[in-house]
Amino acid sequence: MAFIMAMTFSVWNVLLNNFVVERAAFTGREIGILQSLREVPGFLAFTAIYLLLFIKEQRFAILSLFIMCFGVAITGWFPTEYGLYLTTILMSVGFHYFETVNQSLTLQWVDKDKSAHFMGQVLAWKGAASLVAYGTVWVMMEFLDTRYNAVYMLFGLVGLVAVVVLWSSFPSFISPHTQAKTLILRKRYWLYYGLTFLSGARRQIFIVFAGFMMVEKFGYSVGEVSLLFIINYFFNMLFASRIGAWIGRVGEKRALTVEYIGLAAVFTGYAFVENATMAGVLYVVDHLFFAMAIAIKTYFQKIADPEDIASTAGVSFTINHIAAVVIPAVMGLVWLHSPSAVFLFGTALALSSLTLARMVPLTPEAGNEVERWGSKPTEDVG
Description:
Elements: H1 2-24, H2 28-43, H3 48-51, H4 57-75, H5 81-109, H6 112-142, H7 148-169, H8 190-216, H9 222-250, H10 252-272, H11 276-289, H12 294-303, H13 309-337, H14 339-357
């Protein structure tokens, strides 16, 4: 499922900026609105817990993946402002419900001592899927002069067929803990909620405006954007599993500290970069830090009650998308006056995340969710 999701979403993502600029004449205003609309289903991800009253998590994940693939398949046939808004929402409903349930099932099924490495392996498989997608898009668009709608249709239909095969081939797995079917907000999870909120806000600056800058400011073609993404996911495929294992060794506190210091530097670089090649380097480095976000999930797995995982996965996706619904539209207007200000806002978000990361204990567990200031760490896992 991770492979299919990454492959189809990668095609939607790599074509988006060129498609909306060339076919729908989007400016920063329209791309900001589109990305805000894309995040609305993520904001509503908490409703997944109510849908799980009627459908098992595993089947719900497959259904969500089917909806996402269908949304991608039809995107190329609606090259207008409102057509793109509608197809984006459809794709996003499937994407965000799938990601919510996917996170829940992973944290339930995988042992705590193996989860960081496992999530790194999944990221590596996603990287391989994205490489397939970007490589194919590069060939189709640069050498075969394929139309946008044909590329969207091809990958959307391949995804739909693969989902049907998954649905018919795999057995129904049993979850080890009965999950709560109500929304759960616990005071002791507040640090996890805070890290999740800032992660969602910061990620929007990268997803929406870093890629858009490549096309609008530096004139990257579809082929060049595809090559940039290929480099990103080649590194993901090579290093994500190792990063996951590294997080398991050094702990969440150190991993998040490294991530946020690096991201603050990258966003500051975005604000002032004037060279197309250097912008591409920053984009690759930025994407490599994404793998370290595994640490937020494993931190929660260590502090959470097992029966809270499904409910909290939905809540955390909503928290992750509170800012994501607002930031693209607001920053899209700021972009019209000062693109540098948008990226410096990303720097501020990264530094805020760093402050919270320093509160993560070296050995998080239930009852030890936040490091008490002035207390001596119980163990150093360096």
